UniProtKB/TrEMBL annotation, chains A, B:
UniProt key word Transcription regulation: yes
GO molecular function terms noted in the UniProt entry: DNA binding; DNA-binding transcription factor activity; pyridoxal phosphate binding; transaminase activity
Pfam families named in the record: Aminotran_1_2, GntR
PROSITE patterns: HTH_GNTR
Signal peptide feature range: none
Protein name per its UniProtKB record: HTH-type transcriptional regulator YjiR
Keywords: Aminotransferase, DNA-binding, Pyridoxal phosphate, Transcription, Transcription regulation, Transferase
Domain HTH gntR-type: 1-69
The encoding gene: yjiR3_2
Amino acid sequence: MTRYLNLAEYISSRIEQGLYGPGERLPSVRALSLEHGVSLTTVQQAYRVLESSGLAIPKPKSGYFVPAGRRLPELPKMGRPSLRPVDISQWDLVQDLMRQEQNANAIQLGCGMPDTTAPTLKPLLTALARISRRSDSPSLQYNHLQGVLTLREQIARLGVDSGCRLTPAEIVVTSGCQEALSIAIRALCEPGDIVAIASPCFHGIIQLLKAAGLKALEIPTDPVTGISLEAMEMALEQWPIKAIQLTPNCNNPLGYIMPDDRKRAMIRLAQRYDVPIIEDDIYGDLAFRYPRPRTLKSFDDDGRVLLCSSFSKTLAPGLRIGWIAPGRYLPQVLHMKYVGSGTTATQPQLAVAEFIAKGHYLPHLRRMRKQYQRHRDLMTEWVSRYLPEGTRVSKPQGGFTLWVELPDEFDTYTLNRLLEAEDIQIANGNIFSAAGKYRNCLRLNFAGVPNRKIEQAINKIGLAVAQLLPA
Amino acid sequence: MTRYLNLAEYISSRIEQGLYGPGERLPSVRALSLEHGVSLTTVQQAYRVLESSGLAIPKPKSGYFVPAGRRLPELPKMGRPSLRPVDISQWDLVQDLMRQEQNANAIQLGCGMPDTTAPTLKPLLTALARISRRSDSPSLQYNHLQGVLTLREQIARLGVDSGCRLTPAEIVVTSGCQEALSIAIRALCEPGDIVAIASPCFHGIIQLLKAAGLKALEIPTDPVTGISLEAMEMALEQWPIKAIQLTPNCNNPLGYIMPDDRKRAMIRLAQRYDVPIIEDDIYGDLAFRYPRPRTLKSFDDDGRVLLCSSFSKTLAPGLRIGWIAPGRYLPQVLHMKYVGSGTTATQPQLAVAEFIAKGHYLPHLRRMRKQYQRHRDLMTEWVSRYLPEGTRVSKPQGGFTLWVELPDEFDTYTLNRLLEAEDIQIANGNIFSAAGKYRNCLRLNFAGVPNRKIEQAINKIGLAVAQLLPA
Ligand SMILES: Cc1ncc(COP(=O)(O)O)c(C=O)c1O
Ligand SMILES: Cc1ncc(COP(=O)(O)O)c(C=O)c1O
């Protein structure tokens, strides 16, 4: 991270905190240079970054100003509940999304892919290549059902950063976070059971419930603090809920981080009603703030949280390396892992373990966190510039997805058809609901390095939306 | 394959067909040299191979003879049925087996690992390393849910050898054959359903039924021709069977190849009762005879066979690359794949595709088939030499597992405890039954290059068995 980028971030966070309002003058180049002990050039570079992301405008001879017209877009409204547990639809729309992902010409704004081009990822490829070349080729044979020990040791060590004390014996390596979630659900539930989920919720989880013959109960969710505890308590009173699934950190799609006191309260609630929690922490290491947020698991004192995660968002999804720390459900989880896919591939486990052990993981995270935060600001700026007045936008605290809410009567399904013709891929809001809500919302990926083409795509989205909006 | 090994195999097959009985004189070195147009040295080398596997003994000045005491051990008895569908136990014993697999000092005769040390496998490691080094690193990103296209093309091409016409669009790549089986079962069945299986049957399938809340109906199975069609028909009459699972080629554990007319009849039966068949062909490419046997799928004209397989036995299990060709059940299978683990890791798919496309697969298979056939002969020889009279032994037609049947009252569980102390790992027979039958049987792996240590291990097994046999 260079000095000028650090400084640019410092200033932009001040603007966001409201220290400098719309139209106000920002500190002079000289003042900042003195205050931060950096050169004038560094400050000028920082201002140029802010300028290009629309956060500062230069006025000749009088310095930099916060844009007068700049209003932060409003946050999305509270997520809506389902009145009763529902059977799940929308699989065809998820398939549509995946089909579009295969279009190499498309600007991919709908998918969940991280940026895998960072140079800090190089040592991982080197490790993969070296392990392949070893003549005793450990990558060729079956390994421990729980996963390679050196990797589980590293995962346990990283757990400390989220407040968890884990041992390698409590961890099971999986084929991505999706397998971890699938194993958790199957270890806990039988067809017909009810699972409480946030609304909106990652479509991989919703489809999993569908495939397992379960019913989803959608709990209203606040775009800043996460799932409503009050609504959750009411639901627990009213329905025989078999498990609760939550993604409390850098939520996909809303981007919130549940505050610690609410996490603690959530655990107490689960204890009171004796319900297990399946926690998805896949984006937790990509929180923009440091130190990273705690997991629900870190507040869990009776083994009821099944913590699921993977390196798909932090390193690379193609590795398919995830894990689950299932607490008291370890025996059932091991059985499900054995029958579901047997052991996990050996070579990528060894490579990831080596990458972390050699100290490459944290610097890579640092870089990606900063990068994604910058992208978020720029993407938010573009969305508020190009989409019609009244568009609401989430303010993700980590990860790389933005939730965009259009007027209630808007239908992103039609929008999607228009955009597909333009080779622009977005994710329809209603795949994030068990009952097909959020047709007026869409999710945008901002992982990739922002460029002119992406800006143009957002511009096109704005034009298409305007065209479709009821007059 | 060298000339002398070819010749040795030719002679041994003649002995097995009974052309040369116990104590009889084998053709002279000169006669064979003339007949086969090879040098005298080649014939002598061939005879030395036969000598060392106990199939020929030299008598000074009079040539080679079939050992007088040589009696081929009897085949195992017909597999026993369950009288009604049963709930499944034995998971603790499967876990025991896996625990022992982690003992690096043990002689591993219980596991299902292939030999991965053959030089013909080297190009696979080279491909893995090269793909990792590519700067655009396709291995890092998510890929098509059905798997990498180039791999599906190669799998479709190989299908021709087993009589199948498949297109890449009909194939879904999975994390090993276990995931393929798991997806197939979950796509077809709901808790409480009955699945018909062979008896004995691979424990991975039995545990899968257990985890999915299904009941197993064990159908008696002949150690030479496979599952009894008569018993199967009776079962289909009597019970609402939801699916049939079969491993007709180089069966694990019995080693039979179901004859083609029985395969055809099996398909007709499934059509008559309108039941889908989950076919496991994981060892099919390792049949000792050439061309390899046909799959049930190749007789299937209405899409009711879900063909499952992997490269775990033919190449390397640590890759975790398998596939399923699910016929008319493709939509359900894709949904299960998506929710179960998402896409399959990219890099090993690319490497396997390259390995096959460059023509390395078939020569590797040729080598392994010959190797495993030689090992089978030697292992059979050792078992009949060292285990007590009356021990029955399967005669596998492919693959690398031997099924050994001891007197009915014998309990391999106690045997296993004795052997564990000696660092010898075997597979208990009763994990191959849903109802805990076959306590008097064990399965031995003969993939590894036979050596003095393995022979000693078989000797020790023999001694332990003798010690435990009721007087
Ligand atoms: C919240 C969440 N959980 C799980 C997954 C699946 O992750 P993986 O690719 O590791 O299976 C995703 C991927 O999009 C996700 O966004
Ligand atoms: C008959 C049979 N099917 C499936 C499997 C599982 O194969 P994979 O390792 O490809 O998941 C095995 C492995 O032992 C097997 O023997």
